[in-house]
Design brief:
The complex is a heterodimer of chains A (about 120) and B (about 280). With about 120 residues, chain A is of the alpha+beta class. In chain A, about 55% of the residues lie in helices and about 15% in strands. Chain A has four helices and three strands; from the N terminus they run αβααββα. Chain A has a three-stranded antiparallel beta sheet. Chain B has about 280 residues and is mostly helical. Chain B contains eleven helices and two strands. Chain B has a two-stranded antiparallel sheet. In chain B, a hairpin with a 2-residue loop joins strand 1 and strand 2. In chain B, helix 8 runs antiparallel to helix 10. The longest helix of chain B is centred in the middle third of the chain and has 33 residues. The chains are: A alpha+beta (about 120), B mainly alpha (about 280). At the A-B interface, helix 2, helix 3 and strand 3 of A face helix 2 and helix 4 of B.
Chain lengths: ~120, ~280
C-alpha cells in the first residue's frame, strides 16, 4: 500500500498494521473489503495499491495476531477471510496506546486538544 | 454498456496471473488470493456499469503493478525468494560433484598406462588424470602412447569436450528458461527425494563400476620393473579410492537432504479457479 499525495510511504507502511487490526476488530473480513474500507476511511486521501495489503496481512498472520480461512462467500465466490485473534486484540490495544501517545505529544505543540486514551 | 466482442475475462485473468507468476516470491496461494481480489474488484466495477474490459483494466490497476507488488511480498517473506535460489545452488553443486567424481574415476580407469613403472597412480580427487611413465614422460590414452606435449594437448582437448560440453549445453538450455519439465520433477518433497536418489545412485554405481574396471585390469598392466610392489601399491590405492568414494558420497547426500528440506512441505498444486 502506498500513496500519492498526503502520506509518506513510511507512514503508510507504519500505519497499515494498526489500521488492519482495527478494521478486523469490527469483525472478520477479506482482502478486497479491507481495502475498500481503508480507502473509504482515508476519504480517498490515501491512494492504496491493494496488492500491497496482502504482505502486511500475511505478516500479521505469521505473528498469530490474525487467523485466516478460505471460504465460499454468499455470492459463491471463494475468499480468504481474516479475523482477529486474542493476541491480535492485545496487540491492537498496545498499538492504540502508542499511536495516541505520539499523537498527544505532537498536539501539545500544535495547540490542539489531546485525545484521551 | 456493451462489451466489445474481443474481450474474454478468463483469458485476461489467465494472462495477468501468468505475468504475476513470473515474479519471484509469489506462491500459488498468493496468486489465488490476488485473483480473488481482482475478481471482486471487477464484479463491483461491472455493477457500476463499466464495460468488461474497462472494469478489468481498472480492477487490475487497483491491485497494482506486478513488479512492486511482488517485491512487497518478497520483502515480507525473504525466505520465499531465497529458498528456491539456495535450492538451485544445491542442485547445481550436486550435479557438478557427481559428474566430476564419476568422470575422474573413469578417466583413471580408462587412461591407465599399460606399464605403470614409477608413474603417478590415478587420483580420484584430480580432474584430469594421466598416467605417466617415468622413462618416457608420455601420456597414455586407452593404452595408446602419445609422444611428448601432443599427448597433453590431446588430453586437455578431450577433457574440455567432456567437462565443458555438457556444462555449456545444459547451462544454455536452463538459461533459456526451459525448466518446465524439471519444475514438475521437483514439485514435491517425494519427487525431490526420488530425483536426488536416482542421480546419486546412478553416479555412485558408475563410480563403483569404474573402480572395479580399474582393479580388473590384467596384471601385466600393473607390473612395473620391480614387479609385485607396483601391484601392491595399486591395490592399496584402489582401497583408499574406495574409501574416498564412500566419504565423498557424504557431500551429495548432504546436498540432497538440503534440497528436500528447501522444498515446501505442501505445495498447492491444485490451481482452483475462483468462480466469478
Amino acid at each position: 500500500m502506498y500513496l500519492t499525495s498526503m502520506f509518506s510511504r513510511e507512514l503508510i507502511a507504519a500505519s497499515a498494521r494498526p489500521l488492519l487490526l482495527s478494521i478486523l476488530a469490527e469483525g472478520e473480513s477479506y482482502g478486497y473489503a479491507l481495502a475498500q474500507r481503508a480507502r473509504a476511511l482515508s476519504q480517498e486521501q490515501v491512494q492504496w495499491t491493494d496488492g500491497m495489503l496482502y504482505p502486511v496481512l500475511h505478516r500479521l498472520e505469521e505473528e498469530e495476531l490474525i487467523a485466516s480461512e478460505w471460504r465460499e462467500s454468499e455470492t459463491g465466490r471463494e475468499r480468504k477471510y481474516y479475523s482477529l485473534t486474542r493476541g491480535g486484540r492485545r496487540a491492537l490495544a498496545k498499538e492504540k496506546e502508542q499511536w495516541l501517545a505520539a499523537h498527544n505529544t505532537l498536539v501539545q505543540l500544535w495547540k490542539l486538544p489531546p485525545v484521551s486514551t | 454498456m456493451e462489451t466489445p466482442p474481443g474481450f474474454n475475462l478468463e483469458q485476461a485473468i489467465a494472462q495477468w496471473r501468468a505475468e504475476l507468476a513470473r515474479q519471484p516470491g509469489l506462491t500459488p496461494a498468493d496468486l489465488r488470493e490476488l485473483e480473488a481480489h481482482l475478481r471482486d474488484g471487477f464484479a463491483e466495477l461491472q455493477r457500476q456499469r463499466l464495460n468488461d474490459d474497462e472494469a478489468f483494466l481498472l480492477a487490475r490497476h487497483r491491485v497494482g503493478p506486478p513488479l512492486p507488488v511482488a517485491a512487497e511480498f518478497a520483502k515480507a517473506a525473504p525466505a520465499r525468494v531465497w529458498a528456491p535460489r539456495v535450492f538451485w545452488m544445491a542442485f547445481g553443486a550436486l550435479v557438478i560433484q557427481l559428474w566430476q567424481t564419476t568422470l575422474s574415476l573413469w578417466s583413471s580407469a580408462l587412461w591407465a598406462s599399460p606399464s605403470v613403472s614409477g608413474g603417478s597412480l590415478p587420483d580420484s580427487s584430480a580432474g584430469a588424470t594421466t598416467t605417466i611413465s617415468s622413462s618416457s614422460s608420455n601420456a597414455y590414452i586407452l593404452g595408446f602412447e602419445l609422444p611428448g606435449w601432443v599427448g597433453y594437448v590431446v588430453l586437455a582437448l578431450i577433457f574440455l569436450l567432456i567437462c565443458g560440453g555438457p556444462v555449456l549445453l545444459i547451462g544454455r538450455w536452463l538459461a533459456r528458461g526451459k525448466l518446465a519439465g524439471l519444475a514438475q520433477l521437483i514439485s514435491t518433497r517425494t519427487r525431490v527425494a526420488v530425483l536426488g536418489a536416482t542421480l546419486f545412485l546412478s553416479a555412485f554405481s558408475l563410480q563403483l563400476l569404474a573402480l572395479h574396471h580399474w582393479l580388473a585390469q590384467p596384471p601385466h598392466a600393473l607390473e612395473g620393473s620391480d614387479g609385485g610392489i607396483v601391484v601392491g601399491m595399486n591395490i592399496a590405492t584402489a582401497m583408499s579410492m574406495e574409501y574416498n568414494l564412500f566419504t565423498s558420497a557424504l557431500w551429495p547426500l548432504c546436498l540432497i537432504a538440503l534440497m528436500i528440506w528447501l522444498t515446501p512441505r505442501c505445495v498447492e498444486t491444485k490451481n482452483r479457479a475462483v468462480t466469478a
